[in-house]
Amino acid sequence: MKTLKNIVARAVFLLLLLLGVNPAFAQRPETIEMADTLRAEGKIYVVVAVLCIILIGILIFLIMLDRKLGRLEKQVRG
Predict the structure, then answer these.
(1) pLDDT digits (tens, 9 = 90+) for 15-33
(2) Domain hosting residue 19, numbered range
(3) Nearest residue to 34 via CA among 47, 18, 49
(4) What distance in Å separates the CA atoms of residue 32 and residue 50, rounded to the nearest whole number?
(5) Whole-angstrom Cα distance, residue 68 to residue 62?
(6) Among residues 33, 59, 57, 34, which one has the least CA distance to residue 47?
(7) d(CA 45, CA 54)
(8) pTM higher than 0.85, yes or no?
(9) Span between the terminal Cα atoms of the chain, in Å
(10) Could you tell me if 44 and 38 are in contact, meaning their C-beta atoms sit under 8 angstroms apart?
């Protein structure tokens, strides 16, 4: 019975948290001024390019790390 009370308490807490976030979404502006400014000046492409480079770098790092871990696992097993 204690676990049921715990689950209900967590559900009520989560509901209260979600209801508190709802007014914040209602106050946001319809347009994002920073993005409009960057788009008008042509700098949005620089931002997109930098983000793509960062994501590609992270992906390459993860692939290299996975290969190294695979080699280490083979050494430990064999």
Answers:
(1) 888 877 666 665 666 677 7
(2) 2-77
(3) 47
(4) 20
(5) 10
(6) 34
(7) 14
(8) no
(9) 50
(10) yes
